Each structure stands twice: as C-alpha cells, then as structure tokens.
Amino acid sequence: MCEVCAIFGAGEHWSDFGRLRDERFPFDDIQHYRDERKRRIGLINLVLAPAGVSCEDWDGEALMLFDKAGRSKIAPTLNDVWPGAEALSGRSIDPLDPSFADGAGNV
Amino acid sequence: MSERLPLFIVTGFLGSGKTTLVQRFLREPQGHGTGVVVNEFGEAGLDHRLMVHAAENVELIGNGCMCCARRADVGRALYDLVRMSRQDGQSRFSRAVIETSGLADPSPIVGTIARDPWLRQHVELVSVIAVVDAVAGLRNLRDFDEARRQVAIADALVVTKTDLRAAQETRDITAAATAIAPDLALHDAQDPDFSLARLFDRNERQMVSRRGSSFAATEVPEHDENVGSFTINLPERIDWPAFTLWLSALLHRHGDRILRVKGLVRTSAGADPVVIHGVQHSMHPPVHLVGEDTGQSSFLVFITRGLTRDPIAQSLTRFLRLSGSMNRATVSEMA
Fold first, then answer.
1. A11 is a domain residue
2. Based on the structure, what is the number of domains in chain A?
3. What is the extent of the structural domain holding B83?
4. What is the ipTM of this complex?
5. pLDDT per position as a tens digit, A43-67
6. What share of chain A is helix, strand, coil (3-state, %, to 5)?
C-alpha cells in the first residue's frame, strides 16, 4: 500500500515506477505518479477508441474498461488492459498493426 | 524492498556443469548462506542441508504459452527458502540459487516470480546465468532449441570445461552464444580471474548499462529457428507513460516471440537512467541507476523468434510521435 495515498496495491505494475524506487516514503514522487497515471489513462483511451472501449481510473487503484453498451471489466494493472479490451470489443490489439493508435493521430 | 532474498537462476544444457559450478561456489567462503533449489539430483551431490528439492511441475495456464506457465514447484520451494531465511528473526540464507534441469526452459521460472505477488515482495531475481560447456556446447546450441532458449534469456554466460582436450575454441562458443544474446556477460570458468563471488553478488548485477564498452549488439540475420537480436536506439528522453503503454501492448500481443527485452532508457520523469528488463510476457521492476549515469545513449535490445526489427522500431516511433510528447523524436538506426 502506498503510505501517502493510502491506496492499496498502487504501483504494483512495473510501469508504475515511482513506487518501485527503494524509497519507503516517496513523497516527491506522488504528485508525479498521479500526473503520469492520468496521462497514461488518456493515452489508453486514444489507443482503445477505435475498438469502442474507454478506460477510467478506479480510485488510483485499478483501471476500469467500458464498452459502448456499458459493459465493464476491471484491469488491475496495465497488463490486464489489453486482454480486457479485447474481450469487450472482440478485436485484437496489436501495436505492430499500422492502425494501432490511429485514434491518437486524430487528436 | 531491499530485504528481498537475492535469487540467481543457473541454467544450462544436460552435462554442461551447472551443479559443479554451484558446488564450487558453495565451497567458497562467500558461498556460505546460499540456499539451493534443484529440479534434479545430479551425480555431484550438493549438501542436502542447503537444498530444497522441487520435482519439476509445470502448470500451463492462460493461452498455453510456456512463459506463462506457472512453476508451482519453484514457487513452493522459494517460499520455503524465504521462510527458512527468516527463522528466529535471523537470516539463515542470504542468497538463493535455482539450478534448473538441463532440458528446462527457464522462462516459466522467471514468469512465476514476476507474477506471484508474494514472491515479488520477498525475492529479487538478480540474474540468470547460463552454463555452456566447451566440449558439447556448440553442438547443443546448434541442435537443441532448449539450449538456445537458455542462452537467450541469460544475463551471464559461463563457459566450462575449457581445459579439456576435446574443448573447442572458447571464442567460437562465445560467438555462437552472443549471436543469440549479444549483451551476455562472458566468463570462462577456468580463467584465473573468474570470480564466483562476483558472479553471485547482487551488487554485481549483470546490467547492460554497466558494460557500455563491451556491448556491441548487431542485427543478426535470420539465425536458426529465426532466433535473432537487434537493437533500437532511443530518443534522448522518452515519455515513460507512452513507452510503457506501448511495450506492455507489444508484450501482450507478441510476448511469446520476444524471448527477451532489455535496455537503458532516460525518461521524461527523472534525471537518472532506468534499466528495463523482461522475459517474454514478464517484465522485472525497472532499476534506477541513481548517480550511475555514464552518458551511454538510450537503447533497447530485443531477442526474438521470428520478429524483425523494422516493424517494432516503426511502431515505437509512430506511437511516441502520436503520444504528442516526443514530436522531435525518431527511432534512429543503430550506428
């Protein structure tokens, strides 16, 4: 649990790098961590838009994925976003596909 | 996190000399306090007081990808070692070594540690050490996929039996191994300067970043079974949220063909470089090189099976550009 945010499980994933320093009280990192998390969710939304899936933060703890019908899936870490989005949309997500992140190109 | 038990995985083909190497280390003063997990009892027996035996037991989960298999045996054995290391509040073991069986693919072991929340908190995978013998090693690397996979995910290579009459040239063996994994730290077990204490020292972590001058990755043309490696140079500062998003998606879709990815990145977040390191679908926690920036430029090394450089480099360039934070950045060709 992050001592500052009181968020259980925050920063478990390798990409959550503020938490992964060998520092017990990463005060300086917290605001930065939150900013990056917000920005990452924005990017996930750009990437998933063509599949009709959106992503929201769930209390800084996990990510929540929704399709246009309102169905949802919890993604505890970034790793879980991709299979979750594929399950909701029925489409495969492949960054080597030139159309990956096409949604981002239109922004 | 610093109280985690340092773990070393020793892998290598049948008869390569893994047990001898581990046994030699245990006899050294620095080897005291090492707990060993073995999958098979070799002829050269280890001290049983130091050993936890784990009958090889692989559970395939998810899509059946080997790296996503859970090694229940290894998880259990490591749990026992950590528990023993904490007995009576004293540290009986200060280090753990897993010796894999000769035909084992080590990636499920790495995956098991990376995915198990308890193990992640209590065990720190320091390095994977591949043992290749100078007599049969070349032939094994040529003929056996298992031998190539063991080298592909290793951080360090120890060539054994170089003193035997039938030994082949060490440079031929290291050339064959570095054709698979270009950034291996190379050791000759018979070299008078070879130090087991350093090989098994958590502070001597076999990190690409600390071997700048010896690192000379080149694109390997279609190697056997399409196992090859390539390097992608990175922009000076990379946008961490965008980069991790891209890499996570790449490993999700193509992790079964990315035997290994490692690299040194400078991020938008901090002054110090970060070393990243992953095996197939599993990424290790990044390591911050605080105060250790040697000025080496940022790069990623991929060891892949049947995936070539250009689509990956183009995808990364495209994504970083689209993320809006790296407008000036392009992924440049390796000089």
1. no
2. 1
3. 5-205
4. 0.82
5. 999 899 999 999 999 887 789 999 9
6. 40, 15, 45
